[in-house]
């Protein structure tokens, strides 16, 4: 027979008081009920836990070992109850959040620091994913929220316009266009382009190609990279130029100069997206913080 919680509480009280009357008063039960419960506990375990005399009660060696483990078990149980309540209230729990380059190089780190300071009991698990991979992960419930380019066109999802970033030109530090007082997309039309690979940068490329088309050209892509670091490195090496998000100003890279594009007025929408039908208390806390506290 396994001891139940009532038996364990009775045993701990007697072990701490070492007196049946005081233990019974502490538990608000009669002394016979306490004595009967402890005898049932010993019978169930199969070893004596208490050494009784007419004047005193002491723990046996087995009783001392059992007491130490009971205190640990009761502590874990009380912690489990507390965590369950905190999780239900959104004060504790876990969040799986995905991000892409423009988010992590933009204002997302600032948001995460502020949220962690306000809600230290919620653990945030971060994963890097391109926009298209985030959309699939949301649909398959592998993440709770994603920071991506644009919206996920599905009625079950909610969105929040987290950040609007301008398009900027990244030029090698020795590029002749830097001698001009300003830079335009039209001026880049005949330049060799570095772009993120189609596999990881599909959402961004589609938006950039549409803008270039409106300006009457298609970028001459001479090299692709899978990451922002790769793009910056190729630009610094003089392989070509690129058009990137304004968060490039937050990423210091020797040999690369960031210039505003005076003829591009569109912005890159970095949106937070989550499933409206399965919002956990932790996710509710995060969304509310993002919208009302931090965002406000």
Structure explained in plain terms:
- There is one protein chain.
- With 296 residues, the chain is an alpha/beta fold.
- It has two domains: 84 residues, Orthogonal Bundle (Arc Repressor Mutant, subunit A), CATH 1.10.10.10; 203 residues, D-Maltodextrin-Binding Protein, domain 2, CATH 3.40.190.
- The chain contains ten helices and eleven strands.
- The strands form three sheets. Strands 3, 4, 5, 6, 9, 10 and 11 form a seven-stranded mixed β-sheet that branches.
- Helix 2 packs across helix 3.
- The longest helix has 28 residues.
- It is rod-shaped, with a radius of gyration of 32 Å.
- The two termini are 58 Å apart.
- It comes from Plasticicumulans acidivorans.
- This is LysR family transcriptional regulator.
Which tags fit this structure?
296 residues; alpha/beta; Arc Repressor Mutant, subunit A; D-Maltodextrin-Binding Protein, domain 2; two-stranded antiparallel sheet; 10 helices; 24% strand
